[in-house]
Amino acid sequence: MSALVECVPNFSEGNNQEVINEIAKAISQTGGCKLLDVDAGPSTNRTVYTFVGSPAAVVEGALNAARTASQLINMENHKGEHPRMGALDVCPFIPVRNVTMADCVHCANLFGKHLADELRVPVYLYGEAALKESRRSLPAIRTGEYEALPKKLREAEWTPDFGPANFVPRWGATVTGARKFLIAYNVNLLCTKELAHRIALNIREQGRGKDQPGRLKQVQGMGWYLEEENIAQVSTNLLDFETTPLHTVYEEVCRDARDLNLPVVGSQLVGLVPKKAILDAAEFYINQKNLFILEEDHKIRLVVSRLGLDSLCPFNPKERIIEEMVQDGSESGLASLPLHNLVQKVGSRSAAPGGGSVSAAMSSLGAALGCMVGLMTYGKRQFEELDPIMRQIIPPFHRAMNELVAMVDEDSTAFSSYMEAMRLPKTTPEEKERRTAAMQLGLKKAVGVPFSLAEKVNSLWPSLKEMARHGNLACKSDIQVAAKALEAGVFGAYFNVITNLKEITDEGFNQQVQMKVSRFVEEAKESAALVLELLEERTQ
User: Fold this and answer.
1) How deeply is 297 buried, as exposed, middle or buried, from its count of CB atoms within 10 A (0-12, 13-18, 19+)?
2) 240 is catalytic
3) How far is CA 22 from CA 17, 35, 38, 65, 70, in A?
């Protein structure tokens, strides 16, 4: 899959639709950039653009947007609820796929230098790109906002990282950097701006100052009033949603609102959100209420309902969840083919797809049969006493069938690293050494896919044995087929692993992998046989 960087420039214009559209056009017309979202806020007088592309493409897209903004935005008359210090206030770069944080730091430096050189404006680096610890935090750099710039720029402490230390009235200053995925999340309240801000001070990490820190780590926050919606909001930035998740912010705001007798009327996500953030919230509410939900779509609906994410406008997952917006080519992979076409591809005169992909397909179907039998047992009055057991053993099958079907494509591309290494130059001794090392690493990656398949199937045997003991006996043959399909999948993975190990020179790696995969085969034999035996012994 290609390298993908997300860029989220925030421009200080949220009302003039012509300006908003021109900046969007500058981004979307940049080669290699895909504009995903344009979120304009009239009260904040600010528009957040979200686009993705290769590292080089997003830098050029951001520069094109800035060039356009420099002709259309004048900060001298700018007013808005959101803190700001420039026409292009902040422009972060975020790793999405096959890129590192270091790559995004490079993007920020490249963008900052070009922007400063071309427009002759001051530029600061923040986040992971910060050159000074005091500039890691965006609010710290933005202290005093646009109005404080004439004085700040005369102070040595605030000499820009790029560009002149001169105040440019039309532009102000720009902050760029690299960071993790930031989620802009607002909770709606029927109250005054001041009450909303009181709650924001309670929950944000900064709190009311060093002596009165807030409750939630990696959260920025403030209260404001949305005139166009006639509501107040606790507006937050989640700097690390795995440290403080969405649902934690929502529940903490609700807690303080209850103490103040204030009604919470839903919440709002600004821009895009990673799917994991939504699914983490779903797991919280599922566990809180002891719910049984398997499908991702249903989990997303649950979160939209619990958090009231559709309170201000419809929440369409295909337009708001970044994974739904950015396709990685999987829709054209083997796993998405009609069964007839997949069979034809396997039967063609080509080494791939081969036994590894077929093993993954068999294993995924075996897991799917386990899931099916569980669902044919769960929720039926005649098997009501088995519901607690089914709620425990169905989810592993459901997760595994999705993970295993993905391996159909992963196996067919597993040799890509090895083949790329084969094409490396081999003229000098150093080149030969680098090529050999890269080939060995490629082979280890190729071994990893079938090994993971066998390991995943190995984790399913306890659940399949329970299904054989308790599952709907009308589905007896389905459980039998599941057992043999999973066993066959492990055997196929074993043969692929052993074949590739022959070319790997790391004896310690070979011995460890061979020992584990052999154990998986033995477990598959014994467990499949036991499942069949348990089924034969059952009479009801």
Assistant:
1) exposed
2) no
3) 9, 13, 12, 8, 12
pLDDT, tens digit (0-9, with 9 covering 90-100), for 115-173: 999 999 999 999 999 999 999 999 999 999 999 999 999 999 999 999 999 999 999 99
Residue 478 is which amino acid? D
CB 122 within 8 A of CB 165: yes
pTM: 0.76
Instruction: Spot the catalytic one: 39, 78, 82, 409.
Output: 82
Token duo for residue 530 = 């036991």
Strands (DSSP E) along 154-254, which ranges? 174-178, 183-189, 219-226, 231-238
Query: What count of residues does the chain have?
Result: 540
Query: Residue 74 region, left (φ>0) first, then alpha (ψ -120 to 50), else beta?
Result: beta
Q: Specify whether 411 is catalytic.
A: yes
Q: Is 49 helix (H, G, I), strand (E, B) or coil?
A: strand
396-427: b (≥16 Cβ within 10 Å) or e: bbbbbbebbbebbbbbbbbbebbeebeeeeee
CA distances to 4, 43, 97, 315 from 322, rounded to whole Å, are 12, 25, 12, 13
| Distance between CA atoms of residues 49 and 101, nearest Å | 20
**How far apart, in Å, are the Cα atoms of 285 and each of 246, 247, 260, 275?**
12, 9, 24, 16
Beta bridge partners of 226: 231
In the block, residue with structure tokens 């528009």: 47
Q: How far is CA 403 from CA 335, 381, 409, 466, 495, in A?
A: 11, 31, 11, 21, 20
Which residue type is seen at 500? N
Contact at 8 Å (CB) between 224 and 173? no
Give the span between the Cα atoms of 221 and 314, in whole angstroms.
24
Question: Is the separation of the CB atoms in 378 and 397 below 8 Å?
Answer: no
Amino acid letter for position 421: A
Closest listed residue to residue 454, CA positions, set 346, 363, 335, 393? 363
Per annotation, catalytic residue among 89, 411, 470, 478: 411
pLDDT digits (tens, 9 = 90+) for 301-358: 999 999 999 999 999 998 888 878 776 555 568 888 888 888 998 898 877 788 888 9
- Nearest CA to 6 among 57, 67, 46? 57
Angle subtended at Cα 48 by Cα 223 and Cα 150, rounded to the nearest 5 degrees: 75
Which residues neighbour 341 within 8 Å (Cβ) at sequence distance 6 or greater? none
Residue 309, classed as helix, strand or coil, is: coil
CB-count exposure of residue 244 (10 Å: 0-12, 13-18, 19+): buried
3-state secondary structure of 381: helix
CA atoms within 13 A on the CB side of 16: 12
Side by side, the strands of the sheet bearing 183-189 are 219-226, 231-238, 183-189, 264-270
